[in-house]
């Protein structure tokens, strides 16, 4: 299978960012697990993309470069924020919200393990099932073929199933 043809991005950055903002936000939310942090990361990535807009447009696979920038920003987000003092929030989180998040802990733990062992598989699974992207869109954003995206999703899901059934329950937050 060959690589898909180069995606034509609009020459106007605003039109591009408006169209792609929701997907970038979904990607960042999965990586950072906090909406405010994800919004901040998307804006930071948007700033970098804007500064390099002509480079992005000239790139052989512009969407892959956009997602590489987004991936790098989300990876460095907490490193950078550790150097900046935090301001306490006005209201503590609702306990119902924290209880709801507890049900996601086994999947989050398995995804973290998969992300360390096979980052490409983890990204493909994230884009396919959490961002609900098609294989061709995944291949554009990760600069791989659609067949490779399909294979990485399949392998990633198999590995996630294995991790969620073999990891001891107490490590996953179970009783």
3D shape: globular
Please give the count of helices. Answer: 9
Q: What fraction of residues sit in β-strands?
A: under 5%
Q: What count of domains describes the coordinates?
A: 2
For the terminal residues, how far apart are their CA atoms?
47 Å
Largest β sheet strand count, sense and barrel closure: none
Strand and helix order? HHHHHHHHH
For the secondary structure, the number of strands is 0
Overview of the molecule:
- By secondary structure, the chain is mainly alpha-helical.
- The chain has two domains: 8-87; 91-167, Winged helix-like DNA-binding domain superfamily/Winged helix DNA-binding domain (Arc Repressor Mutant, subunit A, Orthogonal Bundle), CATH 1.10.10.
- Helix content is 72%, strand content 0%.
- Helix 7 packs across helix 9.
- The longest helix is centred in the middle third of the chain and has 21 residues, at 62-82.
- The chain is globular and about 45 Å long.
- The model has no long low-confidence stretch (mean pLDDT 83).
Short description:
The chain is built from nine helices and no strands.
Features:
RNA_pol_sigma-70-like; 175 residues; WH-like_DNA-bd_sf; sigma factor; Arc Repressor Mutant, subunit A; 2 domains
